[in-house]
Specification:
The chain has about 290 residues and is α/β, with parallel strands linked by helices. Helices cover about 45% and strands about 15% of the residues. The chain has an 8-stranded parallel beta barrel with strand order 1-2-3-4-5-6-7-8, surrounded by 4 helices. This is 4-hydroxy-tetrahydrodipicolinate synthase.
Length: about 290
């Protein structure tokens, strides 16, 4: 259902801070042409935290519209309040999304039982496939494998995006959750090794500016052609790392604008544009990756 190279899509803005739907359409076309296997709209990389509910729903709906069924669209629907996450799921229930990506509740630091009840409540309100998203570095909580296993028993919780970078968890999750439960990496630097351990794909920031390379690398990896995939991965490795030289999506938006993929690299406060000190770091990573 969900596999391969899935882009954690940036949300383009106009210079005055409005959503730039012209650039959004261009981004979707770029990923269709590049062979991207799926799009996550309005996830963390899509600056979900700074969009209004109305904007959030419209960006997802427009992404589905622009894709025209050519690749699946996954909606970011996470929130640290369960009722808010349920609201997003309900509002997006009929727009044509293939799934929901729901991050662990951030800042309020729920227990494992709290996270189980949070995801259970969301799943019970929709038939749309749900992808759990564990990213402790941003949220302050870590969804443990035992809790993932409990949640995997709920029929429409079908996958996990694991952004811990802890490759030992792949086998643990596989043993606890079974072969049908989909494991996706959320960490570009370890994404290929994640596939080698039994993962099915990567939800990627790098994919925003290296879409064709990421699609080819994931295709090779899923075919077991790891040596060929590793050649691509090594060329992209500095990029994987330096797109986080400042808080994401600051660097990747700058890079996307530099490539002409979006009309400008505007962000919404509290995020600010890439610093002058960081620009040559990202530019050098793009050069090493053969991306200009």
């Amino acid at each position: 259902m969900f596999s391969g190279s899935i882009v954690a899509l940036i949300t383009p803005f106009t210079p005055d801070g409005e959503v730039d739907f012209i650039s959004l359409r261009k981004l979707v076309e770029h990923h269709v042409a590049a062979g991207t296997d799926g799009i996550v709209a309005v996830g963390t990389t899509g600056e979900s935290a700074t969009l209004t509910v109305e904007e959030h729903v419209k960006v997802v709906a427009k992404t589905v519209e622009f894709a025209e069924g050519r690749l699946p669209i996954i909606a970011g629907t996470g929130a640290n309040a369960t009722h808010e996450a349920i609201t997003f799921s309900r509002l997006l229930n009929n727009v044509g999304i293939a799934g929901c990506l729901s991050v662990t509740p951030y800042y309020n630091k729920p227990t494992q039982e709290g996270m189980f009840q949070h995801y259970k409540a969301i799943a019970e309100e929709t038939d749309i496939p749900q992808i759990l998203y564990n990213v402790p570095g941003r949220t302050g909580v870590d969804l443990q494998p035992e809790t993932v296993a409990r949640l995997a028993e709920i029929p429409n919780i079908v996958a996990l995006k694991d952004a811990t970078g802890d490759l030992s968890r792949v086998q643990i999750h596989r043993e606890l959750c079974g072969e049908d439960f989909i494991l996706l990496s959320g960490d570009d630097s370890t994404g290929l090794d994640f596939i080698k351990q039994g993962g099915k794909g990567v939800i990627s920031v790098t994919n925003n500016i290296a879409a064709a390379d990421m699609a080819k690398m994931m295709k090779l990896a899923l075919e077991g052609k790891f040596e060929e995939a590793e050649i691509i991965n090594q060329r992209l490795m500095t990029l994987h790392k330096n797109l986080f030289v400042e808080s994401s999506p600051i660097p990747v938006k700058w890079a996307a604008h530099r490539m002409g993929l979006i009309d400008n690299g505007s962000l919404r406060l509290p995020l600010t544009e890439l610093s002058e000190q960081a620009k040559p770091i990202v530019a050098q990573a793009m050069t090493e990756a053969c991306i200009y």
